[in-house]
User: Fold this.
Amino acid sequence: MTTILETKNLEMKFGAVYAAKNVNISISAGEVMGVIGSNGAGKTTFVNMVTGHLTPSSGEIIYRGQDITGGETRDITRLGICRSFQIPQLFPELPVIENILIALTIAKQENAVLFRAAIDQSLEAEAHQILARFSIDQYAHQEIQTLPQGVRKLVDIAMATVAEPELLFLDEPTSGVSADEKMDFMRTLIEALKSTKTAVLFIEHDMEIVEEFSPRCVAFYEGTILADGPTADVLADEKVREFVIGSEFHRKTSDQDNKKVSN
Amino acid sequence: MTNKLDRTEIGLLIALPILICVAFVLPKWIVNYVHVSMGTGLVALGVMIQMRAGLVSFGQGLYFCIGGYAAGMMAKFFGVTDFIILLLVGVIAALLISTILGFLLRRYREIFFAMLSLAVSMILFGLLSSIEDLGSTDGFNLPTPSYLGWSPEGETARLTLYTLTCFIAIGCAIALNRFLKSPIGYINEAIRENELRVEYLGTSAHKAVHITYVVAATVSAIGGVLWALPLGHVDPEMTNWTTSGQFVFISILSGIGNIAAPMIGTFILEIVRVYAVEISPNTWQMILGTVMLLTIIFLPRGLWSLVTRAKNSTKSTQVSAQPAGE
Assistant:
């Protein structure tokens, strides 16, 4: 698979504290990848650096052979790297459909045309199609601030996909979604993204979701990469178990494995 | 792309002949108020389109004044009286100044934008008040405009200027209605709600604010020219904070829900002011303040929200009138 993004010795320092140190990650086209780590491990800092929200203290970010280190957020989005947020960043007083329409308007806006109508019927139809893909079309005319967190999350992610990005970062997509709904939520999400062939990097605290949905996993600890490889290997890694996921998850999966064996 | 007129635009086009006919039917003093209201209404429209992006300009009088003074100086120093040239000079002056100032102001939001825009307008106020060649605080007079070599006088001059003002004001309102529905107008709403997301969607919020600022300045300068010509006078009060405050007052009073709202709001303000002065010549500002207070308390989205409510109640009546089970 072609490598689309590569970071080289990426570092982010806030005063004397390293939020990210020596981060080397490469992401291939169409890959789905989970990122794990405790709070403050540097996961979101990594996403913020790649998407231009933070300028790295040192290191390089190469996207399709182009150095995008310290680039403007909007320019990086235009290149094909989009993201969703841990706390959904939406337009809360506008209906869901308007949120998507704004995203579509911006995605299709080549030049600032002053007196041409931004919205037409075809754009509205496209917005409804996007909502339907994420199974939230029934909320189209509801204001964001009236929606449950799970729907807001999906709107946030749907908005990030309207520009048809090649690489999509999802920052804790299931946070705020109830434990019972998490798996279904992720299934809806991964199903919706399947058709786009977008490479997806998602930050997640729920190891079962990481195990279920990402073939590859990267574990962060104190700003550095502790492990990077096939998810099963990373989750079984001694250091990852000690510093990131703790022994509980391992015991749980071991129990499940034992049950499978005994059955 | 659609070139079809929407309901607001059709309403504005219907209002055009009515406005023109008003000049022949209503008393002269009312017509004068309508005439002046169209000039100030355009400035209020400039304030309104910035409010859509969450920006409150407390210095919109700057461009109102620039329009009036640019036209006035053209007449005073170069002897030009042609209406079209005077209007163009006002527009070009506002375009140039707003494009330059926009690079500074586009980076600020909320109270910082409000105060900075106010500060710039007050700098002009101070400058104009101290330049003797421009009449200092008294300002100077403008001649009656001519039209491509034709120089009407008396009632004909008044009616000609009034008719042209109607055409230009309605034309500007339609253009601004289209601007609000354009990608930039649409993005402005998004900027008001969440600027971070706008940047993450792939566009520059600064650029959109800058463009909006220039458009608002241009339309305000047109308002300044259209206001100054019928009065035949300009003075630094045009850029004083009290004048700019009035434009914000109109926008809050009328609401930002529709492009027609500030035009109607301006006329209502003028009428309220006339009667306030009539009732209480020394404390008329108190009456205006009370009207403002009541509007904010009972109609926080402005007078236009009455129209929206009426529309919504009509819709819900129609829905409830439908037979059950359909």
Remarks:
- Chain B has a mean pLDDT of 89.
